């Protein structure tokens, strides 16, 4: 059970709620803040004070005054007019994350919504009713207006939701669960959509999946090192401590643990003096990507506890300030950074695949084929990996450097952060398939070398992976193998992080 306060949500807790379905509760203190904030809005309306978004229009219409009798209609019109997202819906897990993050932001007590709003978001989470939210249409400033409007529609009993494995009209699900639609009141529509929760929710899911991929890349690269009889000296701690990057040091240490006891890896000078960069520089390349992931984590953990709507209400309503916390630039840059970092896992992986299949670069059967010439083996798998890596290069172009003015130039600089987050997700899916291809090729290579010579840890991984993709004894439709391996990696049913500490480093390596 996860208790929300508006200030203390972690990425690990977000993962528990979004992936494991943990029940969510609200702290009493945070609910009291919501109550006090709402009283401030009601007083503003009663006193007929002019405050943006409460009794004015939005964006370029901020100078248009709204009559007191129309302030509630204003909020409904806002949601319906802004719910114009297009394209395929976000993955359901992202929709769930959006509800969680929007709820957590409202609990800070700066937004002026009624308790019924936060209670309904809580019900949606715990009943696992998730809005169907189109992915495209957000500029990432003035918040994720279009995506979050589709979320807000659901509170009004409109739109569509995921429920019990199907897509339903919201009204039907409300009837099944005995829920009433909510009539939005002053400030509430704006409070629901003025925020960065679409890009941040997508970013959280990206980070969770990217971290799993980063660990998986190490296990798979360790197999490749054995399949190519790689030189372990490049992972010696002295080298990495001499440079000083902690992530690089940690990657090298994990590889030494993974390969402890292997009779397939070599020492420098035994078979060659040094390996190609795609083997020798794994700690440096992977370590740099880990640095970026650590940066992204830091930004996400700030943003999931941030107040990002506008205006914000302070001092029991005495101070109401219009600002720009809805601007997604911090997350936009973080997502662009993530795109580059994660794409590199595939870029270097594809080069290792080439070394596994190219007969000019190893002494294995050409293209790992059972009958070279008659059978093509893994030849075209490398083509696929190269295609995915090339596609990633286009997706990695930074979205955050672009801006198109909107709302008649009132909103004249935007972040495009949601585009960055969506493209990061696409890159992650491509990287997983490239790693799946490397895994299939590495499994075949170590089989040729001798499974009995593998390190205990990599041998255990080999045996589990072989349950997913059998040995290549003749050509077959390898697309099916790639997709099976990809799904296995996606499910994360291997304990990637659980390096068996009881297995000591092989003393014969001189460490």
TrEMBL record:
Record pathway: Amino-acid degradation; L-histidine degradation into L-glutamate; N-formimidoyl-L-glutamate from L-histidine: step 1/3
UniProt modified residues of type 2,3-didehydroalanine (Ser): 142
NCBIfam families with a match to the protein in the record: hutH, PRK09367.1
UniProt-listed InterPro entries: Aromatic_Lyase, Fumarase/histidase_N, HutH, L-Aspartase-like, Phe/His_NH3-lyase_AS
Chief site of localization: cytoplasm
Keywords of this entry: Cytoplasm, Histidine metabolism, Lyase
Reactions catalysed according to its record: L-histidine = trans-urocanate + NH4(+)
Gene Ontology molecular function, alphabetical: histidine ammonia-lyase activity
Posttranslational modification: Contains an active site 4-methylidene-imidazol-5-one (MIO), which is formed autocatalytically by cyclization and dehydration of residues Ala-Ser-Gly.
Native organism: Mesobacillus persicus
Domain of life: Bacteria
GO BP annotation list: L-histidine catabolic process to glutamate and formamide; L-histidine catabolic process to glutamate and formate
PANTHER family assigned: HISTIDINE AMMONIA-LYASE
Gene: hutH
Enzyme Commission number: 4.3.1.3
Lineage, opening ranks: Bacteria, Bacillati, Bacillota, Bacilli, Bacillales
Pfam family for this entry, one: Lyase_aromatic
Enzymatic class: lyase
Cellular component terms per the entry's GO annotation: cytoplasm
Location relative to the cell: Cytoplasm
Entries under CDD domains matching the protein: PAL-HAL
HAMAP family per UniProt: His_ammonia_lyase
Protein's recorded name: Histidine ammonia-lyase
Position(s), cross-link 5-imidazolinone (Ala-Gly): 141-143
Record-stated family: Belongs to the PAL/histidase family.
């Amino acid at each position: 059970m996860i208790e929300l306060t508006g200030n203390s949500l972690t990425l690990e807790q977000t993962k528990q709620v979004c992936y494991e379905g943990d029940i969510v509760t609200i702290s009493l203190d945070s609910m009291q803040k919501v109550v006090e904030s709402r009283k401030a809005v009601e007083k503003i309306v009663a006193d007929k004070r002019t405050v943006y978004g409460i009794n004015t229009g939005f964006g370029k219409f901020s100078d248009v005054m709204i009559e007191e009798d129309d302030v509630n209609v204003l909020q409904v019109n806002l949601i319906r007019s802004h719910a114009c997202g297009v394209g395929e819906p976000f993955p359901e897990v992202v929709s769930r994350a959006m509800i969680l993050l929007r709820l957590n932001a409202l609990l800070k007590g700066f937004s002026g919504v009624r308790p019924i709003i936060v209670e309904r978001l809580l019900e949606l989470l715990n009943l696992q009713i998730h809005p169907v939210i189109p992915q495209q249409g957000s500029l990432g400033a003035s918040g994720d207006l279009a995506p979050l409007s589709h979320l807000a529609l659901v509170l009004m009993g409109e739109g569509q939701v995921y429920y019990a494995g199907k897509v339903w009209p919201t009204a039907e699900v409300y009837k099944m669960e005995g829920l009433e639609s909510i009539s939005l009141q002053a400030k509430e529509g704006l409070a629901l959509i003025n925020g960065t929760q679409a890009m941040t929710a997508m970013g959280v899911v990206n980070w969770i999946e990217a971290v799993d991929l980063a660990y998986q890349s190490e296990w798979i690269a360790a197999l490749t090192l054995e399949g190519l009889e790689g030189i372990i000296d490049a992972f010696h701690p002295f080298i990495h401590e001499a440079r000083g990057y902690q992530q690089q040091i940690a990657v090298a240490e994990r590889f030494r643990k993974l390969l402890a006891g292997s009779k397939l890896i070599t020492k420098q000078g035994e078979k060659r003096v040094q390996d190609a960069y795609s083997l020798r520089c794994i700690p440096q390349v992977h370590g740099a990507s880990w640095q970026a992931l650590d940066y992204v984590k830091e930004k996400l953990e700030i943003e999931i506890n941030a107040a990002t709507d506008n205006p914000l209400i302070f001092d029991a309503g005495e101070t109401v300030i219009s600002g720009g916390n809805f601007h997604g630039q911090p997350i936009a840059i973080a997502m662009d950074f993530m795109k580059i970092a994660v794409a590199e896992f595939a870029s270097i992986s594809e080069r290792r695949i080439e070394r596994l299949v190219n007969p000019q670069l190893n002494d294995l059967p050409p293209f790992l084929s059972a009958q070279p010439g008659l059978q093509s083996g893994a030849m075209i798998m490398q083509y696929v990996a190269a295609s995915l890596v090339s596609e990633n290069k286009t997706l990695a172009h930074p979205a955050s450097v672009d801006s198109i003015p909107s709302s008649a130039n009132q909103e004249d600089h935007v972040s495009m952060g949601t585009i960055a987050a969506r493209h990061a997700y696409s890159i992650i899916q491509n990287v997983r398939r490239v790693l799946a291809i490397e895994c299939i090729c590495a499994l075949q290579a170590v089989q040729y070398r001798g499974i009995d010579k593998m390190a205990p840890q990599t041998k255990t991984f080999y045996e589990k992976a072989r349950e997913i993709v059998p040995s290549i004894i003749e050509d077959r439709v390898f697309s099916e193998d790639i997709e099976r391996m990809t799904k296995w990696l996606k499910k994360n049913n291997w304990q990637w992080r659980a390096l068996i500490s009881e297995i000591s480093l092989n003393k014969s390596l001189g460490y």
